[in-house]
Specification:
The complex is a heterodimer of chains A (about 750) and B (about 180). Helices cover about 60% and strands about 10% of the residues of chain A. By secondary structure, chain A is of the alpha+beta class. In chain A, helix 10 packs parallel to helix 12 (about 295-305). The two termini of chain A are about 40 Å apart. The longest helix of chain B is centred in the middle third of the chain and has 14 residues, at about 95-110. Chain B is α+β, with helices and mostly antiparallel strands. In chain B, a hairpin with an 8-residue loop joins strand 1 and strand 2. In chain B, about 30% of the residues are buried. Chain B contains 4 helices and 11 strands. The chains are: A alpha+beta (about 750), B alpha+beta (about 180).
Amino acid sequence: MRGLFRPLLVLAVLAAIGLFASQKLELDHRLDAFLPAPADAEQALVVDQISAGPGGRLILAAISGQPPEALVAHSRQLAAAWRELPGVERVDNGDFELDAASESRLMQSRFLLTAEVEGRLDSEALADQLDQRLAELALAGRQIESLVRRDPLGLLPALGDRLAAVDAPQTFDGIWLDQTGERALLVVISDRPAFAIADQTELVESLQAQFEQLAFDSPLQLVLGGAPVIAIDSASRSRSNAIVLSSIGSVFLLLILSWAWRSPVLVIAGVLPLATGVVCGLLVTALAFDRVHGLTLAFGFTLLGVALDYPIHLFGHAAGRRLNLAARTIRGPLLLGAASTLIAYITIWASTSPGLAQLGAFSAAGLAGAAIATLMLPALGLSAPERKPGRAASWPYVPWLPLMLAVVALGVLLAQGERRWSTDLTRLSPINAELLAIDTELRLAMGTGDVRYLLVLSGPNLQTVLRQTEATTQLLDGAREQGLIRGWQAATDLVPSHEQQSLRRATWPDRESMADLLHSADPRFQAGAFEPFLDDLAHLDQLEPLGPDSWDGTALGMRVTSLLDQTDEGWRSLVLLTGMTHADQLGNWLDQHNAPARMVDLRATSEAMVAAYRRDAGVSLLLALALIAGLLLLRLRQPVLTGLVLLPPLAAVICTAALLSHFDHGLTIVHLIGLLLAGGIGLDFSLFSRTLSADRRTRVQTNRAVTLCALSSGGVFLILGQSDIGMLRMLGLTVALGILLSWLFARFCQPPCRSF
Amino acid sequence: MVSQTVASQPAKPDLNALIAQLAMPAEQTLSFTETRQSGLLTEPLKVSGMLRRDAAGRLIRETRAPRRETQILAANYIEIRRDSGHRQRFALHRAPELGALRQALIAILEGDAQTLLEHFHAQLESDADLHWTLNLKPRADNLSSRVLSLELVGTGPLLKGLQMTLTDGEVIQTRFDDTP
């Protein structure tokens, strides 16, 4: 077929560059990529919590389907098998004996970690402890003798109780079970980076495979949760969604364009601007960012579907003429429309959310590339088939109708007040709601809790922060007595300040005095019974002070890193609260006692963050609108004409916003982006309808092309709106509705033809 | 298999008859004193308290010394409850001696010779003065690896004592007294 060769060659070259660029791209599936960049310490905390920070490598597992005794046995077997897998750092199932590292380090550090040493050394307390050891010997006999020798004061079990989450899962024979006893609970910590999706996928698959081997023939079920599982799910769903939806979208476009152009050469040539756009987008994104979020590509490819409009306009005006003449006809409105849309995309690029910035960069570069490629298409020597001009459908000229609808819609939006906005930050994270529910439920069962309020302490150096944390937990003791909370977790449980450690060291008596104290407290024990304990005490001055690194490689290391970390400004320590019913009362209590800690409400902070983010976006969009209006005025030179060109897309955007805020649970930042895109496409419609409609032939060609654009772009976004990823669905429906209204309103605002 | 050694005289000892005599209704208590040795202590360790079976087939030991606590021995677990409200559960297989104790005592207190013989090899001897000795050896491997034997002694319908010998040589003596 003549003329097919050159378009195919260009397509092949583009495909090669695209492949090269996409191999350079490192895909990223961080959950927080589409969240705004934090503006202060509290917001940073919120983003850390949402993206799961150090908990990002935590996989929660529950097995069910058998009686408790069998579950306990399976939990042991499974944990043992999982521990052998590559990529597994640790498996915890409540069986503390298995985490020998933590126990041995707790045992070594017991003298430094034990609070209120004096209280434990009076004769009554000692006698009570030794009595407990006797009861243990009475029950377990020789099996427990060596533990009693080393820890007659029960310091280790006391530390264990102190460290156990207040709502920790119950243990059955030392294995975690949930409240109902129907599920055994396990925690796997992966040693792969939190968002290395391929590695995490491999790990989760091998965990499941190992489970299936063990559970063969039995009705045992495994449920997995945690940040890596959610990230894997989100990655695979954005991939499969993108593949399915873009395949359907492509087939849809091919059908529409083949029907409209009736020429395979033109269909292939028509794809070239889009392909150029994709390649430019990929190259610029790869150059401007280290890594690209998977969803950016899913979004970006579809946004570039808009680039198909350009060849539609070109070929629409080319019927029976040379293509370069058509290119000259459409150059004005096309470049003006592209420049306006570009302004809007660059505004998104300036967003503080990395995901949105990448999306803006990809789309801006892609759009510019597609526009230039469209104007260069005549160089391929193509010709468009002649089509009968047909009759211009006579639509009423009713520019007041969109104006009136826009005013009504604006009234609806104003009347809705704050309800028009959605402040739910999780809607912006591509998480499967069902998986999130499983995750929340598992966390509750594990006693890791649903954290809303945190106490935060920060300071320039570690020791100051630790001392402040200790001062705070002392106050919390009082708050617990008042019934304001049931308990808390703080880093100082494991890493006391140096000051506190020295104080404790100094309080322990020397070996001989301790031996005397023990003997006089309970003479039933033999004189040499506690030699290992006394030896440890004698070596107390050789014990290194505890620091944040002291727990590395143990089950407790994770806890220290999640509660204590180094920030840009110094150190930050968190205190987790459990069993708090009235946050305001605790806040008042802490204020009254001049606690050095700040209480952070994660939910309120995240909502404030979304609101601020939206305000910023709103200001940028208004700025973009002003710039676009200025640009149009500069080109069109008539204020009234500029107003009439801006009216259809603006009215369409306002009506779409009012409809969606009412029917889609409030507007989010994603809706705003969708409105922006719909506005850009609508502006193209309006520009072409208004400026290329002087004579009957041009008007018919313009209107056909605009209708074809509305059909193809609107269709593609409607297809995107079928996604089960919330963000893609919101975007697709917003743009599809915006395009439909823009098309209608552009027609209503097209003045009657002067030359019939 | 049941191996019953028949003493020469005066009567043939009958395991079924003995167990039927020893049966006690649920919740009726039996006081006990248990003595075991420990390398840490100057004197043997004495545990005293009451024991009973409940309707759910659990053996409940409420100890007075060395410490007040309630030990609930169920089919698969032991739960320890202290006055402070502190509770702890272990699987019974971690303390095979308590498992063996529960199996033997529950079967005897329920008067269920059949169940007793399912779990233990039993050997009954008696003399003219109605003194009897019932020697039990656990059948299950997990118990027999830790518990060598249980020897119950009594007179007529009264259970007087129990001696448990563990495979490591430790001997636990228990004396029963039906008057608390």
